[in-house]
Write a structure and sequence with these properties.
The chain has 113 residues and is mainly β. The protein has two helices and five strands, in the order βααββββ. Helices cover 9% and strands 41% of the residues. The radius of gyration is 17 Å and the shape is elongated. It starts with 18 loop residues before the first strand and ends in a 5-residue tail after the last strand.
Length: 113
């Protein structure tokens, strides 16, 4: 498996690659509270329809993911390409999210904050 959207990348300076694909994915924890911040308003759970509470994707403040690649931004920052499997709150549905995440919001599992 490889991350989507990387096949057309051409390295302008192959001796110092901008895109760094990992040979094997690395287990990481992603700070979802910063990557996918919630809305400014807060809806109490008892005010949401049951179909939303049960069928909506379950996101936690920090979630396990797999790191697949690093991409350098023109301003010097690094973005991490992560694979994040998610499930519905009732556990009946699942999907895969491929996200580009600011490096400061990704921590290797063995270095959890």
């Amino acid at each position: 498996m490889t991350g989507p959207g990387l096949d057309g990348w051409v390295e302008p300076f192959p001796e110092a690659p901008i895109l760094r694909r990992l040979r094997e994915p690395v287990a990481v924890v992603v700070d979802i509270s910063h990557v996918l911040p919630g809305s400014l308003g807060f809806a109490r759970a008892d005010q949401l329809p049951l179909r939303v509470r049960a069928g909506g994707v379950q996101l936690e403040a920090a979630m396990p993911a797999d790191l697949w690649a690093w991409l350098r931004v023109a301003d010097g920052r690094w973005l991490a390409q992560v694979y994040l499997p998610v499930r519905s709150a009732n556990g009946l549905s699942s999907t895969d999210l491929w996200l580009w995440v600011e490096s400061s919001y990704v921590v290797p599992v063995d270095q959890k904050r």
